[in-house]
Amino acid sequence: MLGVGNLKINKSSNKVLKYQFISILTAVALWLYVMTIIDPEERKTIRDIPISITNLSEISDEDMVIYPKSDLKSDIVVRGKLSDVQKLNNENVHIMASIDNPVEGKNQLDLSSNLSSRVSHDFKNEFVVVNLEKIVRDYYKVDVIIPDKDRDLVHSATPDIKNVLVSGPRSQMAKIAKVGVYLTVDKKGEDFVKSLDLNAYDKNNKIIPDLKFKDPTVDVHVNMVAEKKVSVKVPLGNGKFLDSSYKISPNEIIITGDAKDLTNIDAIMTEEVDDTQLRVNTPKRLNLSFPNGILSKDKILTVDVVKTQQ
Length: 310
Known about the structure:
alpha+beta; RNA Polymerase Alpha Subunit, Chain A, domain 2; 3 domains; 11-stranded mixed β-sheet; 6 helices; 19% helix; 45% strand
């Protein structure tokens, strides 16, 4: 059996619950009264609403674009009945604008919204100014840019297109110093073809953004440098060369170039010399003559020739 004390506690708890229930009902009734009968005036600021430009296609047809790009947003202050205002937020409030008679340069956007007449509103700014630029188009030669560390490894790099059509805002197009692809080589090896993205560069070799290329990627055919050690010969004319009674220093050099070209080269010639003018132990310096596309790996461009015996 429950004691007298426990009965008193249960009765007290029931009384508290009853009062709480009545309080909740009263609050709900009061809220319903305020919302449905009184419905007071409310003011609310909705921030950072994106501005949608409704005639972008017309601007594009005029070969113009908003530039610099702008993250167009605005705040809006709404006033009206509490029941109407409290429903409004960034998801359902939209701000629109159009550019009437667009011209290159500064243009004013007059703002409007999708709000009904049940609420009044004010924009943070009644209008916004944007800049329009003309789209310029021009052809540029495609360069293959090779960093210094890789330049000695590449014999030739030929893009599959020589010129490319570039378009973009007038101010960006005016910065173009060159258009090309950036080629890096992982290691010395066989010839290869590599697909690379085109970019435009300013006078400081910085990439210029916001430009479009008719052909955004280019295949570059890369011929790697090959090496070959060959002898040095000194021609005398009539198909004759200096014999072993003359010392040539150096008598061998390493040449570099396209592998196909090196196949047919066994010696590098000096300029022609008259052997009657060569004296014992008196060196004569002669220039080396390299075929087109062939270089000296160690940048040796001359040799010394000396007669060692009568």
